[in-house]
Amino acid sequence: MNSAILITYNEDDVVREALALCDSAGYKVLHSIKQDFLQAPKYGISTGKIQELKDIMVSAKPDAIVFDEVLKPSQNYNLASELKMEILDREALILKIFEKRSSSAESKLQVNLAQLRYEMSRAKEKVRLARMGEQPGFMGLGMFEVDVYYNDIRRRIVSTKSKLVKVGKQHELHRQARKRLGFKIISLAGYTSAGKTTLFNFLTDEKRDESEELFTTLSTITRRVSINQEAALISDTVGFISKLPAYMIEAFKSTLEELLYADIVLVMIDASDTLYELQKKFKSCFKTLNEIGVEPYKMIFVLNKSELLDEDYILEIVDKLGLGEDKIKFFPILISSVLVNLVILCDSDYFVKFPDLFYVHAVFQ
User: Fold this and answer.
1) Of 172-181, 187-196, 225-234, 253-262, where does mean pLDDT reach its minimum?
2) Rounded to an integer, what distance in angstroms lies between the CA atom of residue 28 and that of residue 30?
3) Residue 141 belongs to a domain
4) Gyration radius (Cα) of the chain, Å
5) Are residue 94 and residue 225 in the same domain, yes or no?
6) Are 50 and 82 a contacting pair, CB within 8 Å?
7) End-to-end CA distance of the chain, in Å?
8) Range among 54-68, 142-156, 166-180 rated most confident
9) Going by C-beta distance under 8 Å and a sequence separation of 6 or more, which residues neighbour residue 99?
């Protein structure tokens, strides 16, 4: 495992997530620098912190510096030039995890596209700086080579997109076949590491990788299940995370668009999180699902690990997340992994039952 110094915000839940991201990407954090502000113009952090960072690096000897915020290309270049060290901002770290987790041909294409889109946004700035004579990251290459580099990225993006379009057409054919057969579709969604794959494995007897690490699932997988002696299909999808940029969502379009065609989208929420974390993750999931185009009436928010909660705290969660408000046309569901019988309520006119699996307490308005 590589080593890193982590620069992150001075908030416990943010630090926990940043450490989990580092671990999932294969970096052992030797030291953490916590700041209230990570958007200083030149380096992201103050010049005073740069010297402190240099002093820590002398003894720690890290392989990289992980910056838990999205850096502008110029900030990344300034930090790398000053510290003589690889700089990984939040997006680059997530991309490393994606690369590590991708196993199917489709997920590899999606990760490749996201990486190219990330590099393209920085290539423009690198070209601009190169034309000013600074040659960032080009090791003294001339202007011709810089332009070739930029155009090569653009060409590879076009090529990768065309391959993913073909994959999307295959998915469409599969969806049409399912529709002809009359299958109901249930999709699992939610924040990364919320328990989607664990629930999927339990319902389908699959043995997909499940762990506390982030982004264990990158490819959508669909399996047949029996609901009230009627066949249905359930899909596991890639997890969401805060500050997930639009280009990453776009890169995983062929995977995430499966959510659009589901009859029900079960949005898993880890009820063992603090109220602050629950609100942040709920907001992030709801925002991403809206960006994808999933209709709110299809979403059912599921509180996982509800056996850890008492009724008063459950009602507090419902209140804090706004799940009891009239404007939200769905009901929260509480799943306990130690009890039996599951009832999923979509709206007042439609429900699906999974007998003998979980006990669910539905909180109504």
Assistant:
1) 225-234
2) 6
3) yes
4) 23
5) no
6) yes
7) 49
8) 54-68
9) 111, 115
One-letter amino acid of 315: L
Q: Please state, for a pLDDT cut of 90, what percent of the chain lies above it.
A: 25
Collapsing DSSP to helix, strand or coil, 331 comes out as coil
**Within a domain: 198:** yes
Residue 53 shares a structural domain with residue 124: no
Give the pair of three-digit tokens for residue 77.
């270049």
Question: 130 and 234: one domain?
Answer: no
Q: Any residues with CB less than 8 A from the CB of 132 and at least 6 apart, and which?
A: none
Which residue type sits at 145? E
Closest C-alpha among 1, 60, 57, 3 to residue 29:
3
* pLDDT of 144 strictly over 60: no
Range of the domain at 118: 103-159
Residue 42 domain-assigned? Answer: yes
Q: Which two tokens stand for residue 359?
A: 């006990």
Domain CATH number, residue 280: 3.40.50.300
Tell me the average pLDDT across 38-60: 92
Do 77 and 123 lie in one domain? The reply is no
